[in-house]
Amino acid sequence: MLGDNQEPQHYYVGVDVGTGSVRAALVDQGGVLLAFADQPIKRWEPQFNHHEQSSEDIWAACCVVTKKVVQGIDSNQIRGIGFDATCSLVVLDKQFHPLPVNHEGDSHRNIIMWLDHRAVSQVQRINETKHKVLQYVGGVMSVEMQAPKLLWLKEKLRETCWNKAGHFFDLPDFLSWKATGVTARSLCSLVCKWTYSAEDGWDDSFWKMIGLEDLVADNYSKIGNQVLPPGASLGNGLTPEAAKDLGLPAGIAVAASLIDAHAGGLGVIGADVRGHSLACEGQPVTSRLAVICGTSSCHMGISQGPIFVPGVWGPYFSAMIPGFWLNEGGQSVTGGLLDHMVQGHAAFPELQARATARCQSVYAYLNSHLDLIKKAQPVGFLTVDLHVWPDFHGNRSPLADLTLKGMVTGLKLSQDLDDLAILYLATVQAIAFGTRLIVEAMEAAGHSISTLFLCGGLSKNPLFVQMHADITGGNGKNEQSWESCVSQT
Ligand SMILES: Nc1ncnc2c1ncn2[C@@H]1O[C@H](COP(=O)(O)OP(=O)(O)O)[C@@H](O)[C@H]1O
Ligand SMILES: O=C(CO)[C@H](O)[C@H](O)COP(=O)(O)O
């Protein structure tokens, strides 16, 4: 097939593994989106704060969505595929078979998900070491990173998992291995979740100090001793076996992966905003903050030199944009919290029935309901008496305190649809205030941010975007210079 400029079309497949689903997109060489497909993935919570997935289930979902987006396309014109995924921990044995990460011994469940908080005691001990690598994760390691999870496996599942394990992968690196047979890791995952330094490599003293000296003795072969920049071409490309699974030609290029938030950040932070009369036009890219908002929100800001922001992950060199340092703020549950609040409310069945009758999402229905009940007031004023503290799953940034819990004040005895809508609004506002706290911490440390670029599932919600603009715009700054741009990924 020839395009308008008569050059042969080339196609590329991007696969995005989020918390709740896998998505694939087919794009041409100009970056135009031609096809999209998604597929839900399984999730287990065998006990409170233990969250597990299956690498086989996720790979199968990657295959389903990839086959869908390339349907009807001449496979000779497909040039490459790349993966991004949540930063969950995948465990395989020495023959690359799944190993159980649970007391039940269910090897199907071989992934400890990013939001799993089982390793609380382990992360406390890691933080007590005050090792210098902790300076590069905001001063405090999160229970959501990989070192505490590895220590938990060694301490709690030594016989059934730790001793048998041959490979611990971040999920994005598992997917690129599955596609190519190459065990090289992406600099993105190792720097952001595993304490690897882009400049100095692994720090043996850290792993020895926390009791995981066996990883060092093994020359890091289980967690990665070949590291490539995101986007680098892996080995000989797609293996025949993976090609068959995915419905693609063998040998096409496969890129070293990215964590999902970093792929989103890379996708939006350099957006060409010319012609939209936005104040950020002509401003440096370092004045932009990419906010990737799905189950969680991740706040990605870049700088020319390292900036140490207490309670905000990083600074990470070249982990998202080559040559730039990255700081990553975050809120562990945002979309997940909205779903929890709305679905757990007594008026949810009524909401669902009304939304279905109008062929709307529950969020679109709630937004229109808020417009109805606000009367002459701006919608934000509906919550003068009701307030939410959103740290139901701890605070990732800037307080970096996993022990924090959520809170609602101003509840009444009524539980009708108006109450649900107002609770939903208060939750959206609380999340937006959380973003504001992160921006303030980043600015206090030296960032200068004037524009938020939102993407991910929550950016489909105009109320969520508007509240972020209103609440971060009141940050003592010239309101004219604050704006939120939305890009759907
Ligand atoms: N149409 C929509 N309107 C408003 N919010 C939505 C919509 N679709 C999804 N969401 C929100 O987005 C979240 C999921 O975002 P997504 O980017 O798909 O997550 P993940 O990458 O973590 O799987 C959900 O928790 C939900 O709150
Ligand atoms: O820790 C993260 C990135 O560093 C993400 O929060 C995690 O990967 C989950 O992402 P999502 O909310 O898009 O599913």
The CATH class name of the largest domain reads Alpha Beta
Oligomerization status of the protein chains: single chain
Overall tally of structural domains: 2
Broad shape? globular
Q: Would you identify the CATH H-level superfamily of the largest domain?
A: ATPase, nucleotide binding domain
How do you describe this structure in short?
By secondary structure, the protein is an alpha/beta fold. The protein has helices spanning about 55-70, 120-130, 145-155, 170-180, 185-195, 205-210, 215, 240-245, 260-270, 335-345, 350-355, 360-375, 415-445, 460-475; strands spanning about 10-15, 20-30, 35-40, 50-55, 80-85, 90-95, 110, 165-170, 185, 225-230, 255, 260, 290-295, 295-305, 315, 325-330, 385-390, 405-410, 450-455, 485. It has two domains: about 10-255, Nucleotidyltransferase, domain 5, CATH 3.30.420.40; about 270-489, Nucleotidyltransferase, domain 5, CATH 3.30.420.40.
